[in-house]
């Protein structure tokens, strides 16, 4: 029995979906514990591409149950659309395969309207939110004025909460942002219609996960985004609105931390970031464009091109420390094939001449820091069909060993291509 957590060690988009899909075979339950449909996990199975935003990546496996925990904020329209899209591709997801926490909070139309209005008002100071209403929904949760999944089962309660919320939301939309007001009855009718389809999926997820654990079943917890988008430990305010760190498993899924047996950090072989915020190793040269093109670096949720740069071991080692990572899963190693020289950032040169080995909280200071690089020889050989570590080119292995050394954690998995089987497993977390 094992309870393994998968989290991103950079700014998201590390390839967590593939790692979760790969390890799902050994788990009975697969759990999302935070974030919302601002996350997009891309899977390639038998040449077919799947992009999931709310449903855990393990849904493509038979005899597995996927759980959306209470820490996730749920847009019911997006969830139903995902279910319909999977059904069109021959994957039927009934209540036996997907369970939705009754305590999860719902994203409402006014959350999305406020999200977009705020970003537009900020102009050049926008933080790059996806506009999906994630932040405003978490705001209402913290303010104790949110609407939860359980409210879908009580029409009178749902209507009363929507009407109460729109008193404030419409005032902001109309008076402050100059937007059209939202009609309470229209929203109520929309959500009650969706409620009829969602009711069979609603359950006490924390209780069901405990029942699985009591039976000796293994669980896999799937984080969204990355540690440096964590609202507490990330590059604030250019962060998400939740905690994509392992500590959120206990609060976001209702599972005691004493049950967790390992934390795997997914790290891309280089670094990417979507939206605004500091990025010390960002490249705007030929190497950066090469990684963006070969790696198909466009957001699965937004379609926005991702900013690209060399691997930053300061970023990853800080994530290793914060999360207690027991292993790293390195993805997209094949993208670096063909580069004559590969660089790894091993520290930051501060304006006063000192060398920083951790990211400063001050974004002003971080913006003035210069990356300190170590250069390594690249490789030309195609590695996408390699399935044993010792069969990788020597230069490739040298790079992997340097990554493990500078980031402070052993490698557990190395991905050499997008397909599920294009993977080398060095240490099985469920063994």
UniProtKB/TrEMBL annotation:
Binding site for substrate: 300-306
UniProt-listed GO biological process terms: 'de novo' AMP biosynthetic process; IMP metabolic process
Keyword entries, A-Z: Cytoplasm, GTP-binding, Ligase, Magnesium, Metal-binding, Nucleotide-binding, Purine biosynthesis
Cellular component, GO, one term: cytoplasm
Residues binding GTP, per UniProt: 12-18, 40-42, 306, 332-334, 415-417
GO MF term list: adenylosuccinate synthase activity; GTP binding; magnesium ion binding
Record-listed Mg(2+) binding positions: 13, 40
Its EC number(s): 6.3.4.4
Intracellular or extracellular location(s): Cytoplasm
Pathway: Purine metabolism; AMP biosynthesis via de novo pathway; AMP from IMP: step 1/2
InterPro entries attached to this UniProt entry: Adenylosuccin_syn_GTP-bd, Adenylosuccin_syn_Lys_AS, Adenylosuccinate_synth_dom1, Adenylosuccinate_synth_dom2, Adenylosuccinate_synth_dom3, Adenylosuccinate_synthetase, P-loop_NTPase
Cofactor(s) listed: Mg(2+)
Cofactor binding notes: Binds 1 Mg(2+) ion per subunit.
Chain sites annotated for binding IMP: 13-16, 38-41, 130, 144, 225, 240, 304
Active-site residues (renumbered): 13 (proton acceptor), 41 (proton donor), 141
Transmembrane parts of this sequence: none
Catalysed reactions listed for this entry: IMP + L-aspartate + GTP = N(6)-(1,2-dicarboxyethyl)-AMP + GDP + phosphate + 2 H(+)
Pfam families: Adenylsucc_synt
Homology family: Belongs to the adenylosuccinate synthetase family.
Biological role stated in the UniProt entry: Plays an important role in the de novo pathway of purine nucleotide biosynthesis. Catalyzes the first committed step in the biosynthesis of AMP from IMP.
Subunit note: Homodimer.
HAMAP family noted in UniProt: Adenylosucc_synth
Descriptive protein name: Adenylosuccinate synthetase
Organism from which the protein derives: Dethiosulfatarculus sandiegensis
